[in-house]
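Hi team,

As requested, here is the filled-out complex form for the adenosine-5'-diphosphate run. I kept the field names the same as last time so the parser does not choke. Let me know if anything looks off before we queue the next batch.

— J.
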Amino acid sequence: MANLRFNVVEKAFEKKALEIKTPEERPSEYFGKYVFNQQKMFQYLPLDVYTKLRDVIDNGSYLDLEVADKVAAGIKKWAISMGVTHCTHWFQPLTEGTAEKHDAFLEHDYKGGMIEEFTGKELVQQEPDASSFPSGGIRCTFEARGYSAWDPSSPVFIIGDTLMIPTIFISYTGEALDYKAPLKKALAAVNKAATEVCHYFNPEVKKVQANLGWEQEYFLVDEGLYAARPDLLLTGRSLMGHDSAKNQQMEDHYFGAIPTRVAEFMKDLEIQALELGIPCKTRHNEVAPNQFELAPIYEECNLAVDHNMLIMSLMRKVARKHGFRCLLHEKPFKGINGSGKHCNWSLATDNGILLHAPGKDALGSLRFITFVVETLMAVHKHNGLLKASIMSASNQHRLGANEAPPAIISSFLGKQLTEVLKKIETSTSDTMETIKGKEKLHLDIPQIPDLSIDNTDRNRTSPFAFTGNRFEFRAVGAQANCAAAMIVLNTAVAEALTDFKARVDQLIAKGIDQNAAILDILRKDIKAIKPIHFEGNGYSDEWKAEAQKRGLDCETSCPIIYDNYLSESSVKMFEDMNVMKKYELEARNEIKWDTFTKKIQIEARVFGDLAMNHVIPIATRYQSMLIDNVHKVADIFAKEEAQKLNADNMALISKISLHTSYIIEHVHKMVEARKVANKVEDTREKAILYHDKVAPFFESIRYHIDKLELIVADDMWTLPKYRELLFIR
Ligand code: ADP
Ligand code: MG
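And here is what came back:
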């Protein structure tokens, strides 16, 4: 039999080095080439229009259609000079990708010809026929149109011949059908709350912005091998496959030399990303073989999210050009590390103060402690919800496995910060009363003023770690839209800061000195956040038991974790902070449960197909060969001699039967379990059934398939093996 698997291996290795793009200019010269950034706004817009647009972008002021028309005219001029013929609104529906619908710039000139046209209205609003995007029932199919509206805070950009306009996507009645709309509301909420708290320390602050620096992990596999693995193709992960004899145990991949083919891919990707204004900075090998990471310099959160969505599609595109497929699934291979997307998050003021970094003086340090402690208050209060924000059918495989953060949200602060908090907590009211000015505070908490927090103090097992001037939320999945996590985090911090301010103001109203009032509330809060603070090994079993005792959310079932979105405290938080209404949350949960079910359903189908159409026929064919051999041996040897010689093959023959019958029996049982689940109408119940009754079959059946992989002749096995998939030559 001509084996497809071997053909593709050969083809893959024969691939010639690819031509890659190497511009003559330096990165600083082509950075943002395809972005209508501030510099191009200045160049292409009349000064009054430029000033108005900056006001819209910087201060969120209202953009009227007259100005929008003028902005559109400027954008059109630039776009046409770049060879652009089409434009699209680019939005982030509640699937994990982005959506676009391209319209040509063309309009009738009413003189029998056509002209290039692009108006303010087209820039500002479109009505994509969006009935096939998930809406959780908010937008019934008969009112199929949602509309997309321009987000001027994220600049328009060009891909190929198309002008891409970042937009929010909402229903006719105003409910969010995407990630961007609630993210922008969450960012507005945290801006308001943080600015007000800032005024205790820095009355001149006008605005606080959330920053996000994501670190995108991914795997590359050879395109030819990928094509021979229906599971990778259809589900993004390998559903079966025995461990490679060598994988990551030598610890030789992390920061190791990047293979040439991969280096070429990375270079190409980075150039294209820089041209799109994504400030790529770091690239390196990750821990697992074929695993890599790309990280840009942090940016304003909304822009960083857009850039992450953009880079994920760019990665997929550029990988194909280099004969690879890019896997963004959180756990493409069993037994080695999965991929995450660490989200480095912090707050900063318009005058450049990093609120999660120690200040230069005592007051700055008190501000730092305030923002750290109130962030932890948010994480403590909403730890279950934060977990829900990062949970998915694919990320559930990663949490708690091979060096990934556990499925319990806790925070690591490091030795220095822990000591500072302890010091504040145990300072007494007596010493408090002596604190009047900055000097006294300086004396009372000696480490703080010139605190430089050592950020090499790392705990890789912590899902939410303080790293010197920011928090690093490590539980976010590689293929997720990080907006989901950012919506929850920013809203929760907005709520905590609002609550903090209310309590401090109450004390001030009673005549207590402002700093004393702040310290008093902080002391209470430092006690309150203790359950979330954990410096130990987050992977250990002891921590699971301990976390349970501390009252942290320890649920591991993905569909049940989603319930956190609808808990009383979550609904109150989202409504109070004006981010989402209860029925929006309900609708979004419908989508989450439905997506979960569909993902497991697809995996189960692919699994059944591979088991019954690849594995069983091949195992049976190999078994027949063995049986054939047994007969032939019996033909030519005397009975006793033949029995002796056939013993090993006889054992193998029965072993194969044991495995195949287990597989067949359980694939049938899995199909039955699916049928039962499919009859259930309620989306939550259905997802729970898929989680509890269907998915568990994967592990047990896989065990037997992987055993067969070790028994069956290598040249007969049709699926590329881990050792072939995982080592790029
Ligand atoms: P790591 O050691 O975790 O790989 P890096 O130095 O590579 O850390 O930084 C990871 C990301 O964190 C980068 O995107 C970086 O720009 C970002 N980052 C650095 N400082 C901040 C900050 N104050 N707020 C948000 N992100 C930040
Ligand atoms: Mg990191």
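Two things worth flagging: The first helix runs from residue 4 to 14. Confidence is low (pLDDT under 50) at residues 12-21, 430-450.

Thanks,
J.
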